[in-house]
Automatic annotation (TrEMBL):
Protein's name according to its UniProt entry: Interferon-induced protein with tetratricopeptide repeats 3 isoform X3
A GO biological-process term: innate immune response
Family from the record: Belongs to the IFIT family.
Per-repeat ranges for TPR: 243-276
Domain of life: Eukaryota
Pfam families in alphabetical order: TPR_12, TPR_19
Recorded GO CC terms: cytosol
Keywords: Antiviral defense, Immunity, Innate immunity, Repeat, TPR repeat
């Protein structure tokens, strides 16, 4: 193909509505667990929804340099659409054809890329623009894709479904997408109030058990737990092996306080997705909640219950280790603000490995949330330093961070100062002593959590250190309650 035609093709490709033009990751890289989640969805979703996941998987494969594998995924998507959406096949395949064109372009197979560009043109010319069109089906495809990517894409997914519903208000698929997006956003500062849309989604999609459990969780939040539990029971009966249903049902029972049932459901989910690191991590968190239950009940001092606590702690550690073995980034566990229970080993692993900027950014955000979580406004300077260490790449920025730490070293804080162990940890980290740095961070966490009624500080400080902290800070210092953060 001539250079002129190649340039013309490039201009056309930029107009296509597909994964290559939706800016899903904006140069930050694909989240480590996304491909696994997409493959899980392909295995357990209803057939007609699998095409969307194959399209996303094709894009992930392309970004990983596997263009031939991407083409096979697109073939699967196209075949599924032709079979499941006979009357809408052309409009439903627009994103797939756009992806085909982009992959062939990157393979330098320009004639084949042009062939798929022409397919898009034949459909779009029936409406207005020759290479793109406004239609609710495309908005829906984009919405599901962004929803699967998570993070900041969830808000954009909501907008996509709202846009689709303007043209087709009672479409079950569009309503379901909007309901799920609003549920995921419900923990954000601007509440999404998804109750009515969830009820509508359940009414329009009576066989969708996942949405049913999401409604149950919302009812539980509204103090209508009994009604919610009926929905959970119904969903588990109709979809006893569906991983997303099991995970959400586990969340329901965890909030109810029935941790044994929650762990049972997550363990069952592991039977179908044994390599899911997130599930292993979640089970570890639930075992830790069990430890807190025992300790809060004042039962941990008896011999039998001490053994029970140790057994629970061992289970938590085992699942934590399995999570990292299955590929879950140790930084994910460290950024789980609602737990703050990772072991010294996890700290060391996280400190000694290199991670993509996207993951470091998540941890930096998590560290900021820790500050808010404990109301420690005086830690702002330390937080800025932590942020610099996490995300700084430029030599000048690193030098600035080093200078800040040198100032701390030259003018040390007294040992009973609120930030003492944070500062010491940073100094050890910059000096390359990662083990000592991890121990300092653990001590600082223990101090921050010293008055928590859960006894969580005992995970980080020995009995003698706890007594030392109490002696230093005196009785009644700090808040005795811990504010509940929204889920990240």
């Amino acid at each position: 193909m001539s250079e002129v035609n190649k340039k013309s093709l490039e201009e056309i490709l930029s107009q296509l509505k597909c994964h290559f033009t939706w800016n899903l990751f904006k140069g930050k890289g694909v989240p480590d667990d996304l491909e696994g989640r997409v493959c899980e969805q392909i295995e357990y979703l209803d057939t007609k929804f699998k095409a969307t996941m194959y399209n996303l998987l094709a894009y992930i494969k392309h970004l990983g340099g596997q263009d031939e594998a991407a083409l096979k995924c697109l073939q699967q998507a196209e075949e599924l659409i032709q079979r499941e959406y006979t009357s809408q096949a052309e409009i439903r395949t627009l994103a797939t054809w756009g992806n085909y064109a982009w992959v062939y372009y990157h393979l330098d197979r320009y004639l084949e890329a042009q062939k798929y560009v022409d397919k898009v043109k034949q459909v779009c010319e029936k409406f207005s623009n020759p290479y793109s069109t406004e239609c609710p089906e495309l908005d829906c495809e984009e919405g599901w894709t962004r929803l699967q990517c998570g993070g900041k894409q969830t808000e954009k997914a909501k907008v996509c479904f709202e846009k689709a519903l303007l043209k087709s208000p009672n479409n079950p698929e569009f309503v379901s997408g909007l309901a799920i997006a609003k549920c995921y956003l419900d923990s954000k500062p601007q509440k999404q109030l998804p109750f009515d849309i969830l009820k509508q989604a359940v009414a329009l999609n009576p066989e969708n058990q996942y949405i049913k459990v999401l409604l149950a969780l919302k009812l539980q939040k509204m103090s209508q737990e009994d009604e919610g539990e009926e929905l959970v029971d119904e969903a588990l009966q109709k979809a006893p092996g569906q991983p997303d249903v099991l995970r959400s049902a586990a969340k329901f029972y965890k909030k109810k306080g029935d941790l044994d049932k929650a762990i049972e459901l997550l363990t069952k989910a592991l039977e179908t997705t044994p390599n899911n690191g997130f599930l292993h991590h979640q089970i570890a968190c639930y075992y830790r909640e069990k430890i807190k239950q025992v300790e809060n009940a004042g039962e941990s001092e008896t011999s039998g219950n001490r053994e029970k606590v140790e057994e629970l702690r061992k289970c938590a550690q085992d699942y934590c280790n399995k999570a990292t073995e299955k590929g879950l980034s140790p930084l994910y566990a460290l950024s789980d603000i609602t737990e703050l229970l990772e072991t010294e080993e996890c700290f060391q692993i996280a400190a000694s490995q290199k991670f993509p900027d996207t993951e470091r950014e998540q941890v930096h955000t998590a560290q900021c949330n820790v500050q808010e979580y404990h109301g420690e406004s005086e830690n702002t300077a330390v937080q800025d330093v932590l942020g610099g260490l996490s995300t700084s790449n430029k030599p000048t920025e690193k030098a600035k961070v080093e200078y800040q730490l040198q100032e701390v070293a030259v003018n040390p804080l007294p040992q009973n100062a609120p930030n003492y162990w944070y500062h010491q940890g940073l100094i050890h980290k910059m000096g390359g002593d990662l083990l000592q740095a991890a121990q300092c961070y653990e001590k600082e966490l223990g101090r921050l959590l010293r008055n928590s009624p859960s006894g969580i500080s005992s995970f980080f400080l020995s009995a003698s250190e706890l007594e030392e902290v109490r002696a230093e800070v005196g009785p009644g210092t700090g808040s005795s309650s811990v504010r509940q953060l929204p889920n990240p």
